[in-house]
Amino acid sequence: MPRDVNATRPYHSPKRAERAAATRSAVLRAARDLFLSEGYAGTTVAAVAARAEVAVDTVYAAVGRKPALLREVAEAAISGTDHAVPAAQREYVRRIREASTAGEKIAIYARAVAAIQDRLGPVYLALREAATSDADCRALWQTISSRRAANMRDFVADLRATGELRTDVSDDEMADLVWSTNGPEHWALLVHERGWTTERFEASLADTWTRTLTDAR
């Protein structure tokens, strides 16, 4: 008797996938709004579910428990999508690697950081605050911070390959300088505290990195 191929084939419904994606987006938006307005400690999964207009079990199924919610909100802010995107697969990273001069690479990255911080900065600062009292948040903060530092070493290595970097500063020190100035704390001081525009912040980053990293001083 012939085997029914359709009986073992996984069922896939584009409409179901679209609904699941829409639900995940709604949950992440609700979680972000509450984390920023109420803080991590003051946000409950039930409140996220109510804001997203879904059941609590749906929040767990779509994203996970509260630590997972904060992690995914942070990852979404970094990538600009509803899912984490590895650094090597981000569009601006590909453009940096395709650029031929250090100046071009720095300009591309400064523009990307300025755009990312507009959505990431508030989330990152909320995560840092939560990390002071919650072990899961502290582990997430350390993971993201360490990953960002490693990415900066890759960025500096890419710059070094152009032959335009200073020779009196080590790559590790350069990576730390970029890491410190592309962080949300630096963005918050200038944009939130001093009222800088995103464009001015971008220009300042590009100028600072060009002056401190390259021979074009």
TrEMBL record:
GO MF annotations in UniProt: DNA-binding transcription factor activity; transcription cis-regulatory region binding
InterPro entries: Homeodomain-like_sf, HTH-type_TetR-like_transc_reg, HTH_TetR, Tet_transcr_reg_TetR-rel_C_sf
DNA-binding region: 44-63
Key words of the record: DNA-binding
HTH tetR-type domain span: 21-81
Protein name: TetR family transcriptional regulator
Organism field: Cellulomonas humilata
